[in-house]
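hey team, just a heads up i'm posting the complex here instead of the shared drive bc the drive is being weird again. everything in one block, sequence lines first with there labels, then the predicted structure for the whole assembly after. its two chains so it's a bit long, scroll down
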Amino acid sequence: MAHTEPFLETSPPVSDEIRKTTCYMCACRCGINVHLKDGKVAYIEGNRDHPVNKGVLCAKGSSGIMQVTAPSRLRAPLKRTGPRGSGAFEEISWEEALQIATGWMEPLRKSAPEKLAFFTGRDQSQSFTSFWAQNFGTPNYAAHGGFCSVNMATAGIYTMGGAFWEFGQPDWERTRLFMIFGVAEDHDSNPIKMGLGKLKGNGGKVIGVNPIRSGYNAIADEWVGITPGTDGLFILSLVHELLKSGKIDLEYLTRFTNAPCLINEDPASEEHGLLLRDADGKPIVIDRASGKPMAFDAKGVRPDLAAQFEQDGHTHRTVFQHLAERYLSDDYSPEAVADKCGVPAGRIRAIAAELARVALEEAFELDQAWTDFRGERHEKMVGRPVSFHAMRGISAHSNGFQTCRALHVLQILLGTVEVPGGFRFKPPYPKPVEAHPTPHCHSKPDCPLDGPHLGFVRGPDDLALKEDGSPARIDKAFTWENPMSAHGLMHMVISNAHAGDPYKIDTLFLYMANMAWNSSMNTKGVMDMLTDKDENGDYVIPRIIYSDAYSSEMVAYADLILPDTTYLERHDCISLLDRPICEADGAADAIRWPVIEPDRDVRGFQSVLIDLGARLGLPGFVNEDGSAKYEDYADYIVNHERRPGIGPLAGFRGDGGQTGRGGVNPDQMDRYIENGGFFIEHVPDEAAFYKPWNEAYQDWAVGLGFYDKPQPYLFQLYVEPLRRFQLAAEGHGKRQPPDHLRAQIREKLDPLPIWYPPLEDDHVSETDYPVHALTQRPMAMYHSWGSQNAWLRQIHGQNPLYVSSKIWKENGFRDGDWARVTSVHGEITVPVAHMAALNDDTVWTWNAIGKRKGAWALDEDAPEATRGFLLNHLIHELLPARGDGLRWSNSDPITGQAAWFDLRVRIEKADRQAESQPVFKGQNSPVGKGPDVVRQKVRP
Amino acid sequence: MTQLPAQTQKKLGLVIDLDTCVGCHACVIACKGWNTENYGAPLSDMDAYGGDPVGSFLNRIHSFEVQPEKGPAQTIHFPKSCLHCEDAPCVTVCPTGASYKRSEDGIVLVNEDACIGCGLCAWACPYGARELDQAEGVMKKCTLCVDRIYNENLEEVDRVPACVRTCPAGARHFGDFADPQSNVSQLVRERGGIDLMPEQGTRPVNKYLPPRPKDTMKELGADAADMSPVTGNPKGFLGWLDKALEAL
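-- predicted structure starts here --
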């Protein structure tokens, strides 16, 4: 047949209209262009102008159209009609739903507000939901950070006023060596991928530290397949090598850190281990020129790292000397740690040498003058092109806080934080601990709480304890068991509420957290707790209200469902008061707005809270005459002021031209929509680096309202608040820990980073359970709200257990085999697959792919429900008993972070199964099943 | 049975960088999104919420493990779509002329109006880059977003295939291989771009950039000069510190 070509229209119309909003297919919050045809979503792409993703978009974001058409979308408020867990509901009106909710909550507020526990999961409106909870008056509020990455956030704030991801990013333009530890690949995913592409384009190198070589580690130039839970030891060995060879940035340490601050060394002193301070409470340093003690921020002071100083009969030496003594010890030599870490000593030394070489020998200068907080003018900015990033892989261990601390100490010793080429903070960070609130927990009937729930304790006085020393919060956050639990402990709420420990609650109010499935440890146990009845036949947890947009596993366990909208049908604000979307070069915030209207009887959860707040007459939600203060969440976003002139959105304030500070602008939402759904204010060039110490940055930050006066501070190599808890454990002070926790506090709350084996190792025999078991999140699927997506489930519709070559051979596994995986807590039987690029003693699987039958509008024979599985069944919220009469929490003893990755298992070949075990009875689907065939096209 | 054009004016295609691709599937879904709404019949998903979901995709990622002789195993993510071959066997095998290669730019397309769904082209393609849509019964393949790259309703910067526009890592590049100065030609020269399965004689237009060598860092012994201690004994560290501080 001769060559012929048909006519082809190469310029078809793309859409009728583009509406720009913010993605919510994960927590990355990229800008998206939603193309509409006939008012329906026809195509979604990245917004090129947006600071987060600059036009690109991941698989999740690109499949948003399957999310807004998902058959699993809830359709109307639901009232439970069958037993809890069955999924039997009747649809009711919003008026009835809100009356039920008000009827339950109002008496609690009048008598005992703590009996409402409000926990909000993967909430992107925490500054609002916490405001609601504060005005309700319950101390029991938090979001999901406690079971996510609180170790990372908290260690970062205490050490340097910010951590990774939302707090900061590598200087991708200039960095030459990038080291990445244990990153969940669905988090911050587009910026990291864009950065890796840029770095590689510039000829930079990547070192990946992860037991599993997938995703980012697959393209790393060097892969360190470390043994899980030993990252801290590996990092401290790098520190050992750098100190020993003197390859550290002494000038940086002198000027910008508490390395020259003076530690009281007298064991008899009440202040043993605390920093010497002046009458104003400022840490003192010794000026190297004069030898005199001076406040750390005195004009012209040149702090001496090598100083020793006597005062009031007590000897003081610098933090740096203590740090050097500790890490120069041969306990941290590469040879001493190599076996534990599963990394050869020579490789540890080589990595230390490469970090030092790039940081010190590839140093460069930017021709940009700046003035530091001591008033000293610097003509150049010195760049050190080494940067780090880490997330849950290192933080979701019971030694995660100290491991994250160790990583920050490493980057500070190299002088690579807040310098060109290194790690940079994103405004409104950095913010030192002093700029954050302390936790508040004092509740009274018919009264707001005495302040914000969550915060950063400075010492034992800030713990959330009642007069009798018992925990004030249902999750026992901010107690001696985990004093620095800055994000709360959502993973302990159901277990504690069920046990009535520390007290009973009445109503559990949850938002967007799949606690009856993949968001809980001990999933079966949690389901039992949610359905357990007392001797009177009443549920032990009397009432459960849940809000979600989708028919997740948790829905079946609630008594009342408040159906949320999808992300394209709602207002939201990604606020600087909350977890903002800023870049290192700019302060940014964003909105969501209803680019389509819901076709169901659903309401945005935040608008529902506003309605409930008005019905309950909560301060902040009603006017003086008792009428509702806000019509809905959009009205709140525009009109609420947290402090005079400071509202949820920083852009287009006042007359529309004011930024950060300014009065309410009724047109603000429209201005955001016109601007593509976001706002960005760029950091001036002079303020771009050295932010904690840079006068120009501090002034700029005050101007925008991040804080009300400049507050330069030092990076905390030595974290004094930790030492205050140790002092209490040693018997000092009025507030004393219970005796059984003294040793734990003395050992674990060390003010200089330490490494200790994951706590499970102390409770479980390594011989019986020799294998580490991990989960990862795939880049193409977000845990807990992606798996019903018709496109993405074809990529990740089931999850084998990936097994290392060593374990594969030992067990004689073959393709298609199954294995029984046993932990001290439970057992699962699942399909296995061989993976060679994996630490020898590790197995892993994708997180949250397994679904329960009946959930997510999937057929009962869906692979997610037949072959898919959860590791959660193997993990308990408590460690196994060890004969001391106590139950120890499976979490970090400093922050309470859930220690998901401490898990140890053993593996045996098992008979092939029809389905992954355990199998749970199917739930009734309150939304029916999805269609057989999807042919997505709005209009040809 | 269907003739190829004697020559094409341009050779449009993709360069895919295997050193940078993290296997995130963004390109797979952006492609699905654009091409279900645009060119031809929608890309169907059969049993979409059931036990055996099977949909049509024009681009898929495959992941492989490589075990080098020395060093740890490596993971390679390998995106695969139609390579718009110069000697495209999927065209010559087509009994109806539905499968054709454009003389203007070399893009290989299926004219769905003329496609009888016989599947011969999918058999002929050595790369497995064509999929028969189960609902429509026509052959589906990468169009190189022919309805984007010339589309005057899009801003010029957006006139690239959806997979290229969306790729977060920047691992996909679009251009004209007939022009030796184009971005894609330069990348292929600089990075040693390769043909996929050249022994098949299809002369693919798309090229792959191979992964750079990995795990090349040499281990250092305790006596390595790079990391020699500043002092022989722990007490001596303070002496070194004092001197170093003087030098600041």
